[in-house]
């Protein structure tokens, strides 16, 4: 599959990318912020509910809930961030590879952002 230099350097709009059946442009990076915000909200909400449930149980559950729930919430937030950064990294590698391939086909073209 070859990617045209125009597709490598000029991103398409949202709807153009959505209906791009050749998959030369991706919409995942455009949604990554929204996906991360939803994951953070769900993880924090789950942590709060877990904390309230452990406190309502009383006894030793209060101590366990106060120690483990915030710790596990933090661990899940870190895992979510690392997973989404991995997704972004793979898409950026693909985009940069497309730019490099387009530039190797036309060596007189400067890389974007190069002075």
Protein model, in words:
With 115 residues, the chain is an all-alpha fold. It has helices at residues 5-9, 14-18, 28-57, 60-105. It has a domain at 31-104. The longest helix is centred in the last third of the chain and has 46 residues, at 60-105. It is elongated, with a radius of gyration of 22 Å. Residues 5-9 have low confidence and may be disordered.
Based on the model shown, name its key terms.
single chain; 115 residues; mainly alpha
Can you give me a brief rundown of this structure?
The chain has 115 residues and is mainly α.
3D shape: elongated
Query: Helical residue percent?
Result: over 70%
Total strand count, please?
0
Span between termini: 30 Å
Rounded mean pLDDT is 83
Largest sheet: none
Oligomer category: single chain
Overall structural class, as computed from helix and strand content, comes to mainly alpha
Integer-rounded radius of gyration:
22 Å
> What sequence of helices (H) and strands (E) makes up the elements?
HHHH
Low-pLDDT ranges: 5-9
- Count of alpha/pi helices: 4
- Work out the strand percent: under 5%
What's the structural blueprint in terms of helices and strands?
Blueprint: H1 5-9, H2 14-18, H3 28-57, H4 60-105
Helix pairs in contact: 3-4
């Amino acid at each position: 599959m070859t990617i045209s230099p125009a597709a490598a350097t000029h991103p398409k709009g949202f709807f153009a990318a959505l209906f791009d059946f050749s998959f030369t442009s991706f919409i995942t990076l455009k949604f990554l912020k929204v996906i991360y915000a939803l994951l953070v909200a769900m993880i924090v909400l789950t942590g709060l509910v877990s904390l309230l449930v452990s406190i309502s149980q009383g006894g030793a559950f209060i101590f366990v809930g106060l120690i483990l729930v915030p710790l596990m919430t933090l661990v899940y937030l870190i895992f979510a961030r690392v997973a989404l950064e991995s997704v972004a990294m793979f898409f950026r590698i693909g985009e940069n590879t497309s730019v490099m391939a387009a530039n190797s086909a036309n060596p007189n073209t400067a890389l974007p952002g190069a002075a």
